[in-house]
Design brief:
Distance between the termini: 17 Å
Shape: globular
CATH class: Alpha Beta
Bound molecules: zinc ion
Structural class: alpha/beta
Oligomer: single chain
Helix content: 40-55%
Number of domains: 1
Radius of gyration: 17 Å
Number of strands: 8
Largest sheet: 5 strands, parallel
Order of helices and strands: EHEHEHEHEHEHEHEHH
Strand content: 5-15%
């Protein structure tokens, strides 16, 4: 069985002391690749170090996370764009709009999101979208920017059937399913049955969102089989079928 974790912040401080052990545990658990979405300019060096130490296993992505968008966002965008010229990246992410933590910079977040969607089209890369309390805002931007060159994933999807159908109407997008699918009041388990396995990718969002029964602990890619098993149970298929479909989806989306 092969699984791909399409969303891990393995390069952050939470893994400073045992990063290589966490990777060994992931490999033992059947995880054959890990996608690393960036956070901001300050995280690029550790992102690149982690990727360089694990070539062909950890795939770095570059973007400015919505919670890192402040008044000086133009400086951050400049550093991101400069970095694109220097190294190979597999996606633009993570990007999006987050209205859960702070709505002060909603206009800046929206502008930065749109700008990075345009960058993705320019570079022919998929996008990793973070949408928290912001589906309407995200949709109004993507509705305007969508074309056959824009593809990606709505990571840690927690919307309802309306949001799922809207994402599917883009034709070129997947939904990322993570630990929330195991939460009693997460709501994702109820929507999942209406989803198409050919549009789902797996993710942990490490170090966050550990699946039950590890909720509250630091998350890592080795927990991905718990999520795959939960999805298999809900679809009433084997975990191998979930692994095969989601791995194929992830490989196609990220070109790995
Ligand atoms: Zn993330």
């Amino acid at each position: 069985m092969q699984l791909i974790d399409t969303h891990s912040h393995l390069f952050t401080d939470e893994f400073t002391h045992d990063r290589s052990e966490a990777i060994a545990r992931a490999k033992d658990a059947g995880v054959s690749g890990i996608i690393l979405p960036n956070i901001d300019c300050g995280s690029i060096q550790s992102l690149l170090n982690t990727a360089a130490e694990n070539v062909g296993y950890c795939y770095p992505c570059l973007g400015l996370h919505p919670t890192s968008v402040k008044a000086n966002y133009q400086d951050d965008l400049k550093c991101i764009e400069e970095e694109f010229k220097k190294n190979r990246y597999f996606a633009i992410g993570e990007i999006g709009i987050d209205l859960y933590w702070d709505t002060t910079f909603i206009n800046e977040q929206t502008e930065v999101f749109r700008y990075q969607l345009k960058l993705a089209k320019k570079y022919g890369l998929p996008v990793i979208i973070h949408s928290r309390n912001s589906f309407n805002e995200i949709f109004s931007v993507v509705d305007q920017e969508i074309d056959q060159n824009l593809k990606g994933v709505f990571h840690s999807f927690t919307g309802g059937i309306y949001e799922y159908n809207h994402i599917m109407s883009y034709k070129t997008f997947y939904v990322g399913i993570g630990g929330v699918v195991t939460y009693k009041n997460g709501g994702v388990d109820k929507v999942l049955k209406n989803m198409d396995l050919s549009r789902i990718v797996l993710e942990t969002d490490s170090p966050y969102l550990s699946p039950v029964p590890l909720r509250g602990k630091r998350n890592e890619s080795a927990n991905l089989p718990i999520i795959a098993q939960k999805i298999a149970d809900l679809f009433e298929v084997s975990i191998e079928q979930v692994a095969k479909a989601t791995t194929q989806n992830a490989k196609q989306l990220f070109d790995i």
